[in-house]
Amino acid sequence: MRYLKSILFIAVLVFVAPISAQIKLKDKAEKLVKSKVEEKKDEPMKDQTSINRATKAYITGSSAGDNKLKSFEKKMDDLEAQLANYEAFLNADTTYNSKLNTFSLQGEGETLLVVHKFIEIDMESPETELKNGKKYAPNYGFEEETKRYNAFVSKYNMLKTGSHQKALAYSSSRKDHEYETSYDNITNKALKQELFKEKPEDPIYSDMHRNNKGRIVFHTSEVIRNNPSGKFDGNFNASDRLYARAFFENGFTNLTMTNSKGDTTRYAQNGVVFPYTLIYIDGKLQDYKYDNASLIEADVLKNNTRQIWLHPTVGDGLTDIKWIKSVDKLSAGNHQVKLEYWIEEPTESDTYKAKIAEGEFTLVKKAGDKLKIGKSWSDFKVAMSNTSYESKILYVAQQTSKMEDGLTAKAAKIVSSDWKIVKNNITGAILYRYLVVQIKFTNPEGYCYTAPREAKQEYSGNGNYASEFTLITHLNKNIGFNGYIDCD
Fold first, then answer.
1. pLDDT at 136
2. For a Cys staple, 436 with which of 80, 175, 353, 416, CB 3.0–4.6 Å?
């Protein structure tokens, strides 16, 4: 609330029309501003820059200086009354409609109050929204922000009258404010439907999609979205190549998620919603989420169908170790596998999620069936052959790997063809040199893992380097490979 007072205080200042400044008036104005700041215990306004800005605002106006100061005092008193009313408004135990119906617009000077009142109504977590309020007025600069406030006010005024079409048309026509994130929190269901049905999404490419909305289908080859095969299988051998495709009712951006209480919904928004697939085998949820994509990005938002890679051919990609582990621990025989495709958005106050597709198939495992990832240690080529270096590097890796989740270092390969010398950015002095190496590990379960490291030698002077190596994680993701591999 203290911060809101600061914003409202500055807002009043900004709305005063300019006149020429006078020295005497400036002194009186600054003294008055300082006294008001002290009265309000307004910490953000105590710095001299803010006081100077406030003073300047009040010695510039359309009327004489003394009248201006009197007007200022009256506005400050009015502001105190507004804040008291606002606090009562927030604390009142009234319904959404009651708050909406009793609210009235009273002019530009109350724009901030108006906006926050309506944001307050629509937000589940009002305190959080108020704390975030400062993003609407960075550095107390209001010129551009005022346009947004006025747009918000006009939009919400239309909402109050129930004119959904007008609200949509108005907001769509505005070019000087951002409104979509606010729409995400609108509680009026009819307006949401009106707004979000206009969001662009991919067309439905096939009858297969039309007939399988909300379902996941399975095949032994990639399921192309605009030309899926006519027949999908329900039985697979564990050793079969295995693909799946999820068909949704709508594109991601037009799908709704529900909070944990089941009483509030919101639409998927760009950059915050995570899609994933849950896998059940014989009714038991496996101990991971199979991420189909790390994040719904702009080019994915329109998608109304997604491919799921379970056990693809090597040319299409690697098989996830989590799927391999799930299949490896199964006994010989038939097993029922179920996939559920979910979207989820964690927020400060709750988590919104929705299951948007599901499908099942029977997996037949035979004794001795063993899945392959599709990449092995032999695929990593040696760029510099030096058995002495390799031996020293492996020794260091064996000592440090004991601290890495029980990994045991088994082999090392130098995959860079020459040394990389690192110098001090300022002095140019040589600090150290390093080689990029690939280390092979095994974990306690017997699976193989590999990761790149920098094999580093400190500079000792006179063109010499330490004979021993230290290993550090290579932070450049474009160099080396980090992940599970097949054990040769």
1. 34
2. 416
